[in-house]
Amino acid sequence: QKEVEQDPGPLSVPEGAIVSLNCTYSNSAFQYFMWYRQYSRKGPELLMYTYSSGNKEDGRFTAQVDKSSKYISLFIRDSQPSDSATYLCAMSATGGTSYGKLTFGQGTILTVHP
Amino acid sequence: DAMVIQNPRYQVTQFGKPVTLSCSQTLNHNVMYWYQQKSSQAPKLLFHYYDKDFNNEADTPDNFQSRRPNTSFCFLDIRSPGLGDAAMYLCATSRDRVTGEQYFGPGTRLTVT
């Protein structure tokens, strides 16, 4: 079983839809949670960063972390064609073998149709 | 703007011919990482530098080496590229190792002929 599981999709939605992206994880030592957006043939771009449990909102994006369920989500409101990309969840721990390293999900490919 | 820069963006090399990829950063971050990313896969960590301290991943082939001559620059050397080394190579930086907040460069796409 992978430490981080992410549905690879692909996910196709119409413009304006609310998108929900999710990851589950098994390592209870993970404390920092990130979402990266990666356009085709580009490097990943840090989109959202959250410490421990809770919600964080930035414009159309909301990140949620539920440590009790080992579950994180990214919501995109009013989705736009420019949101079409691969979304990677990533997490890190403050100690152990994962210290200072990111453990990635396998990425979800999102397409937003005009 | 503070950023992570990778050169070249595209590199073509021949099978077995050594190649060097470079990364520079203006963020003044202590940690620099090298990742390999193949199509439709998540980035795979090869190694990282915490300041001058080199940390290799256990499954990184000996064919891959790295140098960090100063805070701003880091190099990835592939001594004898094989066809299986064709991939996107990503450099990332982080202020420290505690938070895991990493910033990626645009990547270098390596083709091996």
Query: Roughly what percent helix of chain B?
Result: under 10%
Kindly provide the radius of gyration of chain B, computed on alpha-carbon positions and rounded to a whole number of angstroms. Answer: 13 Å
What is the helix/strand order of chain B? EEEEEEEEEEE
Compute the average pLDDT of chain B: 94
Short précis:
Chain A is an all-beta fold. Chain A has no helices and 11 strands. The relative contact order of chain A is 0.34.
Describe this structure in words.
The complex is a heterodimer of chains A (114) and B (113). Chain A has no helices and eleven strands. Chain A has strands at 4-6, 11-14, 19-25, 30-38, 45-51, 54-58, 61-66, 71-76, 85-93, 103-104, 108-113. In chain A, a hairpin with a 2-residue loop joins strand 6 (54-58) and strand 7 (61-66). Chain A is globular, with a radius of gyration of 14 Å. The N and C termini of chain A lie far apart (37 Å). In chain B, 0% of the residues lie in helices and 51% in strands. In chain B, strand 9 and strand 10 form a beta hairpin. The mean pLDDT of chain B is 94.
Q: Which helices and strands occur, and which strands form pairs?
A:
The complex is a heterodimer of chains A (about 110) and B (about 110).
Chain A: E1 4-6, E2 11-14, E3 19-25, E4 30-38, E5 45-51, E6 54-58, E7 61-66, E8 71-76, E9 85-93, E10 103-104, E11 108-113
Parallel strand pairs in A: 2-11
Antiparallel strand pairs in A: 1-3, 3-8, 4-5, 4-9, 6-7, 7-8, 9-10, 9-11
Chain B: E1 4-7, E2 10-13, E3 19-25, E4 31-37, E5 44-50, E6 53-56, E7 64-67, E8 73-78, E9 87-94, E10 103-104, E11 108-112
Parallel strand pairs in B: 2-11
Antiparallel strand pairs in B: 1-3, 3-8, 4-5, 4-9, 5-6, 7-8, 9-10, 9-11
